[in-house]
Amino acid sequence: MKADLGDLNAFVAVARAGGFRDGARAGGGSASGLSEAVRRLEAQLGVRLLNRTTRSVVLTEAGLGLLGRLGPALNEVESALDVVNGFRDQPAGSLRLNVPVSAARLVLPRIVPAFLAAYPGIRLEVIAEEIFVDVLAAGCDAGIRYSERLEQDMIAVPIGPRVQRFATAAAAAYLDRHGRPEHPRDLLGHSCLRGRFPSGMMTPAWEFERDGEVVQVDVTGPLIVGIGGAFDLAVESAIAGTGIVSLFEEWLRPHFESGALEPVLAPWWQSFSGPFLYYPGRRLVPAPLRAFVDFIKARPPE
For the purposes of burial, counting CB atoms within 10 Å of the CB of 281, is it exposed (0-12), middle (13-18) or buried (19 or more)? Predict the structure, then answer.
């Protein structure tokens, strides 16, 4: 049985976006065109792939099975077609990255504007989320993660600062009322603002290090925020005097410089290796991704 490649792409676009309007917005087409393409595909296959309501589009069991096999296959087709990019003066096409919110905020702003200026034929899409996905199955070309989250068969390229630190901070007014911790264990007597992963798991105990001594503290406090986008709420709450926040030093630095937040336990802040751009090593690298990798490698180390 042969299915139209355009109809298959339409199904994948709708399934990934969770709706016809969002699928059309992402792909630059029309919702009605996607709807008609999916209807043709369902009629040809003789099975319903999507359950439609006025509010949502949900994959059926058959749709889930097809998407799981079709997504990677279409990525391979795109990679094969991308061979023609080698005959252009400059690479063109789409590049889709899956990154954590911290990378979208702290790493990519120093890279993306210059990259897009150098390669005007490339359209970059960045999906920022904290869940760990199979980049190919998610329809992405590459992702950004830290070394402990990388799979063995991935190619990893350093991107952004090579050394980072988690910093702890609070408003001076809060510290004036409750005292300034001198040792990490002093945090057990403080209100600490914590995070929760999308999986439902709480963030690990806060870890500190000084002169070879590593201390883990299982803090508690009045506020829990979702890891990623809700971190701004934790920061603003710390500025308002609610408690102590722990976050990337670069994220908090503007508030240190403005005086809105005061560093807490700075001699104990623990350093860790910076993030990596990663992509599968078992497939042809699309020209836009190759251009991005080469652009990153040519940048001076941070």
Answer: exposed
The answer to whether 302 touches 107, Cβ cutoff 8 Å, is: no
pTM for the whole structure:
0.70
- Which tens digits make up the pLDDT trace of 107-129? 999 999 999 999 999 999 999 88
Which residues, listed in sequence order, are joined to residue 155 by a DSSP beta bridge? 279
Cβ atoms of 56 and 85 within 8 Å: the answer is: no
Question: How far is residue 218 CA from its own chain's centroid?
Answer: 26
Q: Shortest CA distance to 170 belongs to which of 178, 162, 158?
A: 178
Residues 6+ apart with CB under 8 A from 140: 96, 97, 98, 127, 133
- Identify the CATH number of the domain defined by range 1-69: 1.10.10.10
Nearest to residue 238, comparing CAs of 171, 186, 175?
171
CATH number of 163-272: 3.40.190.290
- CATH 3.40.190.10 for domain 90-160+274-302: yes
Strands (E), the chain: 50-52, 57-59, 93-99, 122-128, 142-145, 154-158, 163-170, 192-196, 206-210, 213-217, 223-226, 244-248, 262-264, 271-273, 276-280
CA-CA distance, 271 to 56, in Å (whole number)?
44
- Low-confidence winner among 23-27, 162-166, 258-262, 290-294 (lowest mean pLDDT): 23-27
What confidence tens digit (pLDDT) does each residue in 17-69 have? 778 877 776 665 677 888 888 888 888 888 888 888 666 788 888 888 888 88
